[in-house]
Amino acid sequence: MPISEIAPLPAELQEWQEKIEKLAAGHGLDFFPTIFEMVPADRLNEIAAKGGFPVRYPHWRFGMEYEKLGKGYHYGLQKIYELVINNDPCYAYLMASNELVDQKLVMAHVYGHCDFFKCNAWFGHTNRKMMDQMANHGARIRRYMDEVGVEPVEEFIDACLSIEDLIDIHSPFIKRRADRHDPGERKDAPPKPARFQSSEYLDPFVNPKAELRRDDTEDTPKPHKIPEHPERDVMLFLLERAPLNAWQADVLSIIRDEAYYFAPQGQTKIMNEGWASYWHSKMMTTQIASAAEIVQFADHHSGTVASSGGSLNPYKLGIELFRDIEDRWNRGAYGKEYEECDDHAERQDWDRQLGGGRDKIFEVRRVHNDLTFIDSFLTLDFVREHKLFKFGYNPGTEYYEIETRAFPQVKSQLLVNLTNLGRPHISVVDGNYKNRGELYLEHAYTGVELQMNYAQDTLQNLHRLWTRPVHIATVIDEVETIVSFDGKSVTVDQGDEVESEEDD
Amino acid sequence: MPLDIERDQRRFKEIVRGRLRKNLRKYVTQGEMMGRKGKDLVSIPIPSLDVPRFKFGDNGAGGVGTGEGEEGQPVGKGGQPQGGPGEAGSDPGSEHFMEVDVSLDELAEILGDELELPRILPKGDASLQDEKSKYDSIRSTGPESLRHKKRTYLKALKRQISTGEYTPDDPRVVPIKSDKQYRSWSTIQHPEVNAVIIYVMDVSGSMTDDQKEIVRTEAFWIDTWLGSQYKGIEKRYIIHDAVAKEVDEHTFYHTRESGGTRISSAYKVCADLIEKDFPPADWNIYVFQFSDGDNWGEDNEKAFSELGDRILPHVNLYAYGQVESPYGSGEFLGRLKSRFGESHEAIVTSEIEDKDAIYESIKTFLGKGK
């Protein structure tokens, strides 16, 4: 749909696009056909507010996002340079007010992203016709809004969005079970009598021991547990089990599809940005920028990869790690012999002239995500060189403070932050809790508590989907706790004392 | 193809207004929650307009940063570490509410709807004409100071080209008298209905900061509502203990005296002010008096005659708000009522026990629609 509305780029940019595309392909980048559209700032903000998809379904939060972006742009606080959509063909939007040197930089950057989308394994299962799919989602949701009204649909979307994190990001790769539960599988054996009432002296005759044992062991069907094993894909579980009518189920499935589409972008942010920055910087400095443009390029480039105020810039971390890998593999600075060398000078001058760096980074961009990327390639030398540190919250001073610069701690903190996209690990454990059809979730506590006010509101939204009481087991103040919402009030059960808060 | 973004934006604003309505009593009661932004905007915190999710608490998780610094050195204030670590995975820092900008007019409309305030029909119709000059036209005569150089040059150039005087090799353009163009103005008259709010407050020792806070909050809503009903509104402030004087807004809220209380002194200043600056034929006059109800007994009679003779006949509304104070006797309200009757057409009174009473008090004051 958007193709028809795309105006051709101005001739000069079109020429540059062709040139840059050839250069990118020449370096071995492998991308979908890429369509550039040049748009004014407010239009770019509109598209960005919709997550990159102008055709997306209507929802108030996009309006909120647009207000924020518009304000940020208006006050000069932020400006979106470019926007790339993972789709075949790839769509990329250029900001009309950018200067030529920026447009060239952005185009080179975009080809890096397009290559990453196409070649990185974690994007392997994403829908490459998402632009069409999003339009389709939009049409379906608009139709429901016409049928049942804007507000009920929008409020239902709100509830679905509350749990859009609760998907199993590995399920596109690992089939843990069939998607749809087949009710035919269940063998509902008639209930067996357990023990009959009898007076004591008759008991051995009325309830013969052999018979009781048989009940216990042989054909007594195990009580059917729902789900059989804890499930990460809470959205799917609700889709199959919650009492939803047809439009609600469809809306939930739409939100779930989009969540799966966007998940790999969250899993590969450092790599994806690092990769695109690596390529724009390589192409700009060696092939594209004229002598007159190089200073301006350097200025803007350093702006994007700058680290300010102690914060870690994913663009910077990504590009530096790719460069480090390329350099180490060129020199052969890896493997047992290198690792075991503890002479600092020798390690620095290490050069086996292997020249395998380029191949290595292409391999890395194909198979890794941020978590495995950091796990495999963040080294002690790198952490020292880039002055990374671990910080933590000090309740005494109410400040985040530098805790340590020790390599193992820094690395493990980074890995913790990247695990499950930095979100709590939550599964459905029981869909028939207390044998009353209540929903019981479990948070795998790893030392960091849930934010309680958010958790309570999320439970309320979950209740709108499940319509029966919902619970989450977690840990608060080192005490195992169940937070529940029964439709009226939130209760926090820590075993001995029960706190109840009326919901207004 | 039109984008839905305008629709989304509209929905967002509707939802914001809905939240505002729902929590209006809270905002009215706790005026200090709101921040003033420029002249016409206030920013209001709206609870949880983001989508709630299961997420880690703000202060639990740490992160990784980069740069110089010793162990123990702070890198960011609690709840708001500086951006970066969030980028790399965790997402600390976002609050459970957001600030939205609302125009005062919009706020007044919500207030009006929720409190069911009647619209005010200004008295004295459009008796006052306001004149404005606007430089919006061009004439061929006028003072040199208003000469329009560009237009003059263009006219001279046209003339020279049409008469063949212009030679591109020697591009001199010399205006003659008939080329000269001058800016000119027209006078626009528009009817203006004027209104003035006169605030009177007792600043004697028995009025504490708590009481003044209440006055300030009430005044904010009164300003907002009346401001939405009139174009251009004047505000005057009178403080008094045993003596009274007119002051500016800042002084009004920040003065504390220790003297006794003589309300008549304030009425006199108020009446003089009306006489001098606000001829009642042209002005809609509102007087809001706040006090803890203390007055020197022998002063009451004098005060009431001043009020009855020189103020009440001229005002749209005289509102007396009695703020409960641990020190004040609170007698004045009863005296006022017995003197002027329970239902004097221009008088409206309200007792404000605490912040929670502000909401009803505003409704009482403004509910008359005067």
Automatic annotation (TrEMBL), chain A:
Transmembrane segments: none annotated. Residues 424-475 form the SpoVR-like C-terminal domain. The lineage of its organism: Bacteria, Pseudomonadati, Planctomycetota, Planctomycetia, Pirellulales. It comes from the Bacteria. InterPro entries: Spore_V_R, SpoVR-like_C, SpoVR_N. Residues 179-190, 210-228 have a biased composition (Basic and acidic residues). Pfam families: SpoVR, SpoVR_C. Residues 177-228 are annotated as: Disordered. It comes from Posidoniimonas polymericola. Residues 11-421 form the SpoVR protein-like N-terminal domain. This is SpoVR family protein.
TrEMBL record, chain B:
It comes from the Bacteria. This is DUF444 family protein. Residues 57-95 are annotated as: Disordered. InterPro entries: UPF0229 (IPR006698), vWFA_dom_sf (IPR036465). PANTHER family: UPF0229 PROTEIN YEAH. Residues 75-87 have a biased composition (Gly residues).
